[in-house]
Amino acid sequence: MLDVIVVGAGPAGLYAAMLMAREGLDVAVLEEHAAVGAPTHCTGLVAAEVYDLYKVPESIVLHRPSTCTIVSPGGVAGEFRSPGERLAVLDRGALDQALAKSAQQAGASVFTERRVDDLTLGQGHVRALCANGEAVRARALVMAAGVTYRFHHLMESRSPAVLHTAQLEVDARPSETLEVHLGRAVAPEGFAWLVPVRRQGRSRVKAGVLARGDARSYLRAFLDRPTVSPRLREAPGEPIRRLLPVGPARRSYGERMLAVGDAAGLTKPVTGGGIFYALLSAAFAADTLIEALRADDLRAQRLARYEARWGARLMPEIRTGLRFRRLLASLSDRELDRFVAAMASDDVQAVLAETARFNWHRSAIVALLRQPGIKSILLRSLFR
Ligand SMILES: Cc1cc2nc3c(=O)[nH]c(=O)nc-3n(C[C@H](O)[C@H](O)[C@H](O)COP(=O)(O)OP(=O)(O)OC[C@H]3O[C@@H](n4cnc5c(N)ncnc54)[C@H](O)[C@@H]3O)c2cc1C
Hints:
Elements: E1 2-7, H1 11-22, E2 27-30, E3 45-47, H2 50-53, E4 61-63, E5 67-71, E6 77-81, E7 87-90, H3 92-106, E8 109-111, E9 116-122, E10 125-130, E11 135-143, E12 162-171, E13 178-181, E14 191-199, E15 202-211, H4 215-223, E16 240-245, E17 253-254, E18 257-259, H5 275-294, H6 300-329, H7 333-343, H8 346-355, H9 362-369, H10 372-380
Parallel strand pairs: 1-2, 1-11, 2-8, 5-13, 11-18
Antiparallel strand pairs: 3-7, 4-7, 5-6, 9-10, 10-11, 12-15, 12-16, 13-14, 14-15, 17-18
The chain binds flavin-adenine dinucleotide.
């Protein structure tokens, strides 16, 4: 019998597998697809802080943006510089492959074409049944299957709040700047983005939409805009569509089981970025399981320590981010125009230069809400 089964070979599952295998645990990762890292749904934008957890190979960096332009529905544009943090757009497929290699070098096994179709808790073990009929047993399990919540009842949990996304990559005119477009007609409750990358010497752009509703249709309409379509150098193909969790699942632990990354609903609520939280939660999960396996105590009561650990670090951020997301989602297009203009003012730029961090939004949000220009726009939406 294995020590740990990890369901899903994304960043969260592979990083947890690597850390546990390094401690001598017998770990197997089961991935449904034929290859790790494909298909790729993600934009891959991270801050250098990710390197504190995992040394990302330089060869997989597709672009290093330093500015972001936010465009309001009425065309007001604010330009924002990264406040001292190095950002990188990673080849997300290659990141997953690098993590898989590191996990294997640490001693974990990574199996592809192993879709887990059924999970059962037995006496002293958990059993995963794969679509190919293979059954695997282990003392514990890490649920790292991304936005898949079909097994969450085993943790007395359920699906978190989700939004829809659609993204594709096409050849495009060269550009340095990230773009974020806001507006109810562009992406209700979310945003559209253009992220320039260079791949094999070609200038390309990742274009996507995060929205409530039909993200694919919003993306088509966005790409057809006269300000966007002339910049594309080929006809856009079919986007990859996926759900994105925007808020934690009700519970991230159960008997012999922990959920990490998107499976626990751990993304930054304002932007939807989740790679850093995926790695961080995987590290907390690995620590908790290593201790629990050594103590041979895998009761839910004991594994609750995992949620206490990630909660202490992430919940203040997530709570503030969720409130801010709700305020932004309730703004009309005219209010969004005023919001972007206020964000671009010298006063607010100075505040952001002091407080904004790519992975930690709370300080910047709190500081923004103290700015009279921003406060008056956002708080008015509370009284509608
Ligand atoms: C359009 C889009 C753009 C994004 N852009 C960014 C970004 O720029 N920066 C950022 O930080 N975050 C971004 N994110 C979020 C980020 O992609 C996720 O937070 C991150 O992938 C979470 O990692 P994970 O390992 O938890 O899940 P995943 O990466 O989803 O990995 C889960 C794995 O489990 C496998 N799996 C699922 N079910 C089963 C099963 N039953 N059996 C076996 N295997 C299974 C899947 O095939 C997959 O390989 C984006 C998300 C979307 C949708």
